[in-house]
């Protein structure tokens, strides 16, 4: 295993063991996604800014393998970082990010996730080589896409 693969594996394990963005509030509109093959589950919400046009935060709860849990944590971390920079996602920006994430994960290793754009979530690039694990990594992202579609009509 290369040094980069070891680093990516460590990032995934760290996020699985110490997840970011956990904690839903009863009033939040949620999307619940489940992988019936392995039993992974993620319930996610997008929290909107005061104007209601940008995603201020991603919160989630879930159970399952380290990949599904780390992926949800990494999505929440990306949202947190964007908000901290004063540039929370628009629905269109998050939709584009989800589409590119999906394309990379379905590429079977041909398209790596760009570290500059995806940050530590680029660690999930290796999942694309294991078709059975792609749905695990996609759960939180599909939940976000579902919420975007319900709220704004913006989704793929």
Automatic annotation (TrEMBL):
GO terms for biological process: iron-sulfur cluster assembly. It comes from the Bacteria. GO terms for molecular function: iron ion binding; iron-sulfur cluster binding. SUPFAM superfamilies: SufE/NifU. Pfam families: NifU_N. Residues 8-136 form the NIF system FeS cluster assembly NifU N-terminal domain. This is Nitrogen fixation NifU-like protein. It comes from Microcella alkalica.
């Amino acid at each position: 295993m290369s040094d980069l693969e070891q680093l990516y594996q460590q990032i995934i394990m760290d996020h699985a063991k110490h997840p970011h963005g956990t904690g839903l509030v009863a009033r939040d509109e949620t999307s619940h996604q489940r992988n019936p093959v392995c039993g992974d589950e993620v319930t996610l919400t997008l929290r909107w800014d005061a104007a209601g046009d940008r995603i201020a935060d991603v919160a989630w709860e879930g159970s399952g393998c380290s990949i599904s849990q780390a992926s949800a944590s990494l999505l929440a971390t990306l949202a947190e970082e964007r908000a901290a920079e004063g540039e929370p996602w628009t629905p269109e920006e998050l939709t584009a990010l989800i589409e590119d994430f999906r394309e990379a994960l379905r590429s079977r290793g041909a398209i790596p996730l760009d570290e500059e754009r995806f940050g530590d979530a680029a660690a999930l690039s290796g999942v694309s080589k294991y078709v059975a694990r792609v749905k695990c990594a996609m759960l939180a992202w599909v939940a976000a896409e579902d919420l975007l579609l319900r709220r704004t009509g913006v989704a793929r």
